[in-house]
Fold:
Amino acid sequence: MRFLCIAISLLIASTVHAEPATTPPKPNIVLVTLDTTRSDRLGCYGYALARTPNIDFLATEGVRCTNAVTTAPITLPAHASIMTGLLPPAHGIRDNGAYTLSDEYTTLAEVLKQNGYTTGAFVSAVVLAKRYNLSQGFDVYDDNLYAEDDPKLFMIRDRPAPRTAERAVAWLREQSSTNKPFFLWVHFFDPHQPYESRYANRHLLPTPYDAEIAQADEGVGAILNQLRNDNRLDSSIVAVTADHGESLGEHGEKTHAIFVYDATVRVPLIMRYPGKIVKGSVYKDPVSSIDLFPTILSAAGIPDIPRNQGADLYSAYCGNDAVDEAMQYSESLLSEVGFGMAPLYAVRYNGRKYIRAPKPEFYDLKADAGELNNLYDTHRGEAANLDAALQRMLDFSAKLTRGAPRAALDEESMETLRALGYVATEEQRSSVSGMDPKDGMALYAKLEDARHAAQRRDYAISEELLREILATAPDHITARNVLGLVLTRMGKWDDATREYKASLASDPSQARVLHMLGVLSVRQKKYDDAQKYCERAVELSPNLVESMVILGFIAQQKNDNATAERWYKRALDADPSMPRAQLAYADLFFLREQYANALGYYEKVVAALPNHFAALIQSGLCAQRLAKPDAAIDFFNRAAAIRPDSWMPPYNIACVHAQQNRLDQAIASIEKTAPLVPDDVNLIDYIRNDSDLAPLRNDPRWPALAAKLLSSK
Structure:
């Protein structure tokens, strides 16, 4: 009997092997990265006040990592690690803005594309624009943010989650008609400061930060719903993580990017893959953002995973044995790159954390999760061991470098960052060289407070804070440049001029400061002074388009049209890829109330970038001033089609109707405007003071309309 059973077994085995081999279909892959999101502000991580049902669903259906750490508390370096599986000292991206990923590195998208995947990326902030080269391997890389509002003072242009999700969903619909697997990366910027969510139920959440996270969760929901509609959700790997957290005041840091405490380096990490990853499981062992690279590729069945520094955790997520406990690395070089202070490096291992700094730190995370009790003096031996391990990680990373990162910004862009106070001048660097960021945080926090006050248009408060900084640190060029900008916004042009001149006395090579002196001189019609400043600015930064436009404008005021034309042509030659010069030129004409000329240049911008929201709005305003109401409404309607959630198009349409005494239409447009107005805009004040709406205020229906609008806020 025994031999018979063996024979039958062999027969069955041979029969099975004789059937034609089939290759299982490759899973689709969706990676969502949330900007600035703490894990402890998500429902699935225990935050009862959260409104994150879509992220919570993924955690319920997949694995939730409770001990995940990012490599850097700043967007571009963290995303470079996610996309390459390498630590920042290996891939070379150490800060936002100043670096571009070298072509020598292999990204997650490139590996998947080589293995038959269609690839698409949709990012929500200019800090991840194509110029930084994370676009390697993507068939589609959507970083077009021209439909968005101009950023607030000191902030970058970004796009809210609903609009980014809308574009990603449209791309997913295109993939539904094909059998090719796809890799989709979506980045939601919303939780980043300033917190300005338009989430419908934001009044039910404890803080604006939580409302921003809820809005990002709605973006996740839109992606999941489209996958459900295409019957692809359960055949897809879906991973959600954050690039970094947010400090919310812990350790004196109001947001993120300087320190490497857990408030900013602990991140959520969730992965769902039905039938493979254990449903509703919790993974408590250490995880790093670099682990996503090998884990996703392993889950997708990709052979020959490129060399990386991450751990393949796919088998562990599927319920098999966990990998050996790994050391988690984080760094912050913003204090060095931006302000000239000492960099910070951290490692976490076996519940301990060591931070290399001029004043070293050592924490027992199991007993002190908030990192409030520095044990370095009593645990120098353990700290020394972790410091040696940290150095080995840095040395090994250096061996993995493959091509130096290129500078992403030209000198003009770097000058912009210096003028806004985001990059220190060499003089300022030398004055704080080697300073522990903990010692410099008080000044940095006050500078941040001043910026935030200026964003809120609390210019007097901002001025007071900046003058306090300069009283204790008179050589703080960053604070002085920000003060110059704040005084300019306040209309204190003479005071602003004095501050900018004092800044130049410390560092005469600041082209952007010279440009601002030119702007101030133009506003005071001191054209000879403006010409002198802007010519010097262009000497220092030969591609400084804004100064060229001012020089052309000055020549025009002097009736020297030939010189004006030369400057405008030079500006357009310097910036041929974007219509920045036309836009600046148009804005100057608009401010001079030369609306016909302004409209001509705004239309050139729109011809090059049909979705340029601001140019469409400005075109409509010009047409309105030129008594072309139908053309104005057409421009505003085009803007509304691009940004249906913006209050500006219906408000301006109401103004046009009111000027034409079409008061029924004006009231209808105002009522459309009201639900779209953000919290920081007082619609009633606009309506009461806007001369375009004077006919509406004389209508007998105005008191009832005003009362209705007031009651809705």
Remarks:
- The chain has 31 helices and 13 strands.
